[in-house]
Specification:
Elements lengths: L1 E8 L4 H9 L8 E7 L4 E7 L13 E2 L5 E9 L2 H6 L11 H12 L9 E9 L4 E6 L8 E4 L3 E5 L2 H5 L9 H10 L13 E2 L4 E6 L2 E6 L15 H18 L7 E4 L4 H13 L5 E7 L7 H11 L2 E7 L1 H14 L9 H12 L4 E3 L4 H5 L4 H7 L3 H15 L4 H10 L6 H9 L5 H7 L6 H6 L11 H27 L4 E3 L5 H7 L8 E2 L2 E2 L1 H7 L5 H4 L10 H6 L3 H7 L2 H7 L4 H12 L6 H17 L1
Parallel strand pairs: 13-14, 13-16, 14-15, 16-17
Antiparallel strand pairs: 1-3, 1-9, 2-3, 4-5, 5-6, 6-7, 7-11, 8-9, 8-10, 11-12, 18-19
Helix pairs in contact: 6-7, 6-19, 7-8, 7-20, 9-10, 10-18, 12-18, 13-14, 15-18
Length: 612
């Protein structure tokens, strides 16, 4: 895993390239390299975290055997050995996947990307054509940002590297609206108008101030007319796909382990990893002194049953609070997800023993594991829809927070139903609330996200909601969280459930195998029971969270006073202070489910203050 940077500009020099590359040293502390051609106005930078072939010969930037192409690359391609067999007459100088990727581009051109199975962001410069290519993996597991203007093109793995070069960055109002509604900034947007993300499953070509984009893969295009309808054969097929994916992701020249929360997904990944590994695997879990948020004792039971080398860290509130503000700032733009903190801390613990960890992300979106899917089903019922206004009105007046929250979910706009259900499940602002809260508002990005999918097979309400999460929440929240939090500690996180072969199978699996008689992620659990007893795993889903509601009432209350006071709000001219004051009063008077709304505003205002 690494950090990549670069530019195509007449105005930028090697000093700026070095500055950008050094800003990503946390992503790759083992080696720094730069390629700069002053005549062609091109620069490529690379900070390396050595995983495969630890020798200097595998450092980057890397030049092709034909001397025409130069590459910087972040990620892992797991089928590189098979690809290398298709490339003849190459005297391989390394045992790394990097060299294979570059020579594959030489052989097949930009369409080579369809052969890659892995997570990656790649920049390749063609010295002959004076052209730059940027590639991003199918699900956007690895980040890649860029900015284009009349006289330059700049790219990097993280926004902080681009921040070193571009000082004039106007804020995007669409992104603020989307962030407060979802907790993250979706699609290819960022908080800045003039910086974008390379889209997942795409590549771009840049030359002479002209940019062309090609989409090579989307989940939508992989939906088939028919589903896999035999449970026995589907379970067998999925189990084999999981075994192959996990086995390929254990390839490493450095120590490797798994994150183990004790839930279905991480337990299944750990169980199969232990099965296919030639040695005992390392597992890592983190817990909190607050028992409500502590799953570590479940993880310990799972690890003992699997026979892994288990490592556990019980977190004291003081330790977590000390890290909170630094992890907030590390994302370079507003990002809400509070579980970024435990992800950072478990990564920091794992890094003491290993350099690579496998994660269970993706299981909930692919196999319907979220409570939001129950709401999607309820709101598809015409009777509920016709009565939702009077029901939500009654629930709004309830003295119970649970029913008040239910009233907010029921108060759903038909047009943007998918994002509304998601936002209320995440305890953040509905569009109705945002129309009062924001002085300048634009919901065009939210409207875009809620457009009906054009697919070869009609999906029901639950499938639609899960597909929304797969395309948005997973890519722009969960994968961002895992990448930034793990790379903050120079740890590589791999996500075997997001092998594209598993995705293409799962999205065409009969929905009855995902939710069966009220059991969510049914087929995954049935595979898990081949490794672990059902009574050990049959318990409610808790999630990977921190006691933020409690902290904001006590230790972190000063952040509400610091960032949500009248002077700051009025000076910024973005938010309506009267609406914020109402939320603060309601929270103080017992409506503690509003904590995520307050936290999202604290993060936004902290960012705007630093930005200003």
């Amino acid at each position: 895993m690494c950090g990549i940077t670069g530019f195509y500009s007449k105005n930028l020099k090697k000093d700026e390239l070095i500055l950008m590359t050094n800003r990503l040293r946390h992503r790759g502390p083992d080696a720094i390299g730069n390629y700069f051609n002053i005549d062609k106005h091109i620069g490529l930078g690379h900070s390396r975290l050595s995983i495969l072939d630890l020798s200097d010969s595998a450092n980057q930037p890397m030049t092709s055997s034909c001397n025409r192409y130069v590459m910087v690359y972040n990620g892992e391609v797991y089928n590189y050995k098979n690809i290398s067999k298709e490339i003849s007459k190459i005297n391989w100088k390394t045992s790394s996947d990097s060299e294979v990727i570059l020579e594959a581009f030489c052989k097949w051109g930009p369409n080579f990307v369809t052969k890659l199975n892995g997570m990656f962001s790649i920049a390749i410069y063609d010295k002959k054509e004076n052209k730059l290519f940027l590639f991003r993996d199918r699900m956007g597991i690895k980040p890649l940002f860029y900015s284009i203007s009349d006289d330059q093109f700049i790219f990097a793995s993280e926004l902080k590297a681009i921040d070193e070069i571009i000082k004039n960055k106007p804020i995007c109002n669409e992104s603020i609206y989307a962030y407060l509604h979802l907790g993250y900034i979706p699609t290819n947007k960022t908080i800045y108008k003039n910086i974008l993300k390379v889209k997942p499953g795409s590549y771009i070509e840049y030359r002479n101030n002209e940019l062309n984009e090609t989409i090579y893969w989307t989940p939508e295009n992989k939906i088939t007319n028919n589903t896999f309808d035999n449970f026995s054969s589907s379970k067998k097929k999925l189990k084999l796909l999981l075994q192959n994916s996990i086995k390929s992701r254990l390839i490493s020249d450095v120590p490797i382990g798994t994150f183990l929360s004790g839930g279905t997904d991480s337990s299944l990944v750990s169980a199969i990893a232990q099965e296919v590994s030639e040695s005992t695997i390392n597992t890592f879990s983190i817990g909190f002194e607050d028992a409500k948020h502590n799953e570590s004792f479940h993880a310990k039971k799972v690890a003992k049953r699997l026979g892994t080398n288990h490592n556990e860290f019980i977190l004291k509130e003081k330790d977590a609070l000390n890290e909170l503000e630094s992890i907030m700032e590390h994302f370079d733009e507003p990002f809400l997800d509070p579980s970024a903190l435990p992800t950072l801390l478990v990564s920091k613990m794992a890094k003491r023993s290993v350099t690579v960890c496998l994660s269970g992300d993706g299981g909930d979106e692919l196999f319907m594991g979220y409570g939001a899917y129950n709401w999607a089903k309820r709101l598809s019922n015409p009777i509920i829809w016709s009565l939702k206004k009077p029901i939500s009105s009654i629930l709004d007046k309830s003295a119970t927070n649970k029913y008040k929250r239910a009233g907010l979910v029921l108060n759903a706009p038909k047009k943007n139903l998918k994002s509304h259900i998601f936002s209320q499940e995440q305890y953040v602002f509905s569009e109705r609330e945002l129309n009062k809260l924001l002085i300048k508002r634009s919901n065009s990005l939210i409207n875009e996200l809620n457009q009906p999918y054009i697919l070869s097979r009609k999906l029901n309400s639950i499938e639609n909601q899960a597909f929304f999460d797969l395309n948005n929440y997973l890519i722009d929240d969960l994968l961002v969280k895992v990448d930034r939090a793990s790379m903050y500690t120079s740890l590589e996180a791999r996500v075997p459930l997001l092998d594209h072969n598993i995705i293409e199978f799962a999205i065409n699996l009969n929905k009855r195998f995902k939710i069966h008689k009220g059991t969510q992620k049914y087929i995954l659990k049935e595979i898990l029971y081949d490794y672990l007893p059902k009574e050990l795993m049959d318990r409610p889903k808790w999630g990977f969270s921190i006691p933020l509601d409690k902290w904001l009432q006590n230790e972190l209350y000063f952040l509400i006073e610091k960032y949500l006071n009248k002077d700051i709000i009025m000076n910024q001219g973005i938010l309506n202070y009267k609406e914020i004051e109402k939320i603060k009063v309601r929270f103080k008077n017992g409506e503690t489910y509003l904590y995520n709304r307050l936290w999202s505003l604290i993060i936004l205002n902290k960012f705007i203050l630093n930005f200003g």
